[in-house]
Amino acid sequence: MIKAMVFDVDDTLYDLSVPFRRTAEEVFPGEKLDLYGTFLASRKYGDQVYAQSFRGEMSLRDMYIYRYQNAFADFGKKIDAETALKFQAVYERKQQEICMTEGMERMLECLGKKVKLGIITNGPAQHQWDKVHALGAERWIPMEHILISGEEGVAKPDKEIFERAEKRLGLRPEELCYVGDSYGNDILGAKRAGWKAVWYNHRGHQAGKEVTPDAVVDRETELAELLGRMADGG
User: Fold this and answer.
1) Which of 37, 143, 159, 181 has its CB 3.0 to 4.6 Å from that of 193, i.e. a possible disulfide?
2) Cβ(185)–Cβ(156) below 8 Å
3) Residue 146 and residue 80: Cα distance in Å, rounded?
């Protein structure tokens, strides 16, 4: 029986494309750009080098430059390093203005009455804490149940960060379910740790072959219904 549900933050608890679009509109005012395509590309390039950056093999500065220069180049726009860093600076500011949908808030409110809730998220500690606070996630999730890779010194998909969450929550792997949008970080890491894993695949990504998620949903309403049933023991 599932006794706790642990969530990713970026593009799971909130729509990450919204602050990206608002950033692009501020940095490149009036330009006609494929912002959704560029957003997806930025996620792809960021994921490619995140592990290197986390291990200290690539600076955050270089990671941001790599991510945005390649993402915009894929859609016909060349930007220099200075512009890439400006984009990241504005993006970080816009991410402090994020919010959950009413549906996501209702879902956490309902789930929190039935199971324990937690967060595991990758990223620099202060940056991710800023997002957690902007979302008001601590209304439902105790601070001690929130694990951030930059603070823990270990990142998804390494199963160690999931094992640390087990200890914080006082539960066994089979009693935990992880919910996230990334197959490579979220689903792979959770399944390797022996957890249930729900893939919130609202971007229509292709699954890898390493593990199979326990469920795949692509709409918020469907996610809420599924997790509600799981929390009820269904």
Assistant:
1) 159
2) yes
3) 36
